[in-house]
């Protein structure tokens, strides 16, 4: 135990004092459903400017005044925890603070144009797209970038389809995608969705890619290796150049899952490591709100060799420099979104990068990495592997990680990702991000340690101080009730 | 001058704290924490100058300011309805805005309830048993419906039938989703902007896994005989997938009543606007396909005190649990957009939503009538009821008409050599008189 430990005793939390969750506190009464407050069934079609046989008979919806609705949703928001509420160290999700000015920028009327507008009439939009493509290309070390994929998983799908199209163009029939066992679930789902067989790669003792296993796994059927670097344990794949060589020698492509890019800004670039194609989770790395699960945006960067396969439309400066144009890359894979992706998220990403610049981006990574290592060094739980980049995976040991996480809620902080990756027993995958200062990290460490010292009975009973107590997810799945109509039955 | 600290303004950075943290870790400097081989270290410049918040905002304003200010009479899947201020205000609350997927439901009850209410509204609008809490957009929702059709169909078959007038973007996204499972996307004919029922009957056989139709269609026509489409699909044991949006569904016959098995489409018509094509994919289906649904579902459960509580449910369908056997790879979805749609629907209420839908019919009808009186224009081209939009014939080349219209400050779609498409909603309604005048100038 370090000397610092004593100095931070005043951070030792008591559940339910200074760490209270925001919650609806009216004696256990929940905010009723809108439908339970006041609904009205209206007849439809009586006065409609359409014949009867084209219209429905009736429609029943909540029928409330604006102040009632304002209170309804404000109460709901009080039962919800966001990044501005407190620490949100959810591993692999990069829950950074979201600058407020980017919200204003995304709300500019000029951002809200129709996607079918002529190129000449939306030169500003096209210029911003081209500039952001340039920013992302330089950050990732990639030659060309498409902004179209509307989320990280959609970026994966785009990248894997590009890889497929590349092999097909070479007359090369490759059927397998190799993925480490520690990878995000989306990698596996994406490869399958794109029609590939998945070859799972076991991790080595040190938590990194097992070079021997990789050599055995790749071959003439390998279309690509999908890799996160640093990986989900927060470890940098130091042998990345050798990995790239093995994959390339087999004729496969190297795909970079950008979920963990926040650790590398300005210090290392996937393109320089030998990656051929990558996606960026701009809503993680470039700090736009996660919105309770989206929208995100998952731009994809590729090397020169793959640029012809990017989705359409792509945007570029006109050859004579007079303006910007949309065009279809020569061997485009087509489209992965109805138009150009989640535009307003991209506007936020552009504004964020323009605000921080080189120095700010590099600083963001430096502090994210500093914070992860500091927190890892402070907590009582065992932290295997290392050294870490922006996240680490602790082990809850004898405790059940999911129970420990529920108890952390009582200390007013959002818990880490639990039970994943599976290569660590009772995993607590923790990513504090650069948004936390030392005081906040000390609080967080104190919450970890308080939970680490508690017995199973306490953890089983948690959480006690949240809007809802422990929710039985098994019974919710056994008898699904998915709309207020299901409650009437 | 605003003081500009070097580094990220969004990271607390007290130097004494940093020193103490480095000391606790046992390293000299932050650089020692980066476990990156020298050979792949980046020592170049990204070339982005740091800016103050004010300057970064000005940069975006200046760049986007290069867009022409046009009054848009455009639709074809992306619609601009007035968004009540309440929607922006509530969706901006940080507890919604800055939260994550509800993996810890005990501290996410608010968002979960809002998404449950969104699902409930779609169930009411579609008449189908289950709705998920969003896909990316209408095109990807259609792609997911295609792969679902293959999973649920009792006999094999790989043909996906779509109308020949399907928007190219949707068709290409559908093709991307269909490629992995080897489905083939084929077209059936339309007439007067809606399904040619006889043509569809000819195109159908027992290899068809899915039939897709839209109402209103891409050209704004309301399908006059969806029941016949549903029956044809049923005869061949093909899934009937219907594309629409929540405004139209408030007025038009219930998809469940015409035999729809899945409803997909854009919810962004409420709560989001055109946003350069950013969407909110809606997805609803019959309860019997529940375990094959892509994306997230919010359900009701109970907590340890037996009180009603909300949670993500049936997650064993999802990628983070099922990996390569998941129903979809979707993870991040459009949750905040779904919340915006729900608040918008709630703000309108039943009368308001139906009234908005009725306006979409009468505004389009009235504008078509007025444009038809303009010399050089005939509108609407299709002898159908229309919703929000319709096509018009131009005696002059359509591209020239549209280009001249731009100089008058208006944007429309060019959809053929002598055909434009015009969309009218509550958002551009105040500009109708000026628009008709401009049309008279250029047509």
UniProtKB/TrEMBL annotation, chain A:
It is an enzyme of class 1 (oxidoreductase). The keyword Glycoprotein does not apply. It comes from the Archaea. Keywords: Oxidoreductase, Pyridoxal phosphate. Pfam families: Aminotran_5, GcvP2_C. Residues 1-66 are annotated as: Disordered. Residues 164-291 form the Aminotransferase class V domain. One of its GO terms (biological process) is glycine decarboxylation via glycine cleavage system. GO terms for cellular component: cytosol; glycine cleavage complex. Residues 1-13 have a biased composition (Basic and acidic residues). It catalyses: N(6)-[(R)-lipoyl]-L-lysyl-[glycine-cleavage complex H protein] + glycine + H(+) = N(6)-[(R)-S(8)-aminomethyldihydrolipoyl]-L-lysyl-[glycine-cleavage complex H protein] + CO2. This is glycine dehydrogenase (aminomethyl-transferring). The lineage of its organism: Archaea, Methanobacteriati, Methanobacteriota, Stenosarchaea group, Halobacteria.
TrEMBL record, chain B:
Residues 11-427 form the Glycine cleavage system P-protein N-terminal domain. GO terms for biological process: nucleoside metabolic process. Signal peptide: none annotated. Its EC number is 1.4.4.2. GO terms for molecular function: glycine dehydrogenase (decarboxylating) activity. It holds the Pfam family GDC-P. InterPro entries: GcvPA, GDC-P_N, PyrdxlP-dep_Trfase, PyrdxlP-dep_Trfase_major, PyrdxlP-dep_Trfase_small. Keywords: Oxidoreductase. SUPFAM superfamilies: PLP-dependent transferases. This is Aminomethyl-transferring glycine dehydrogenase subunit GcvPA. It comes from Halosimplex litoreum. The gene is gcvPA.
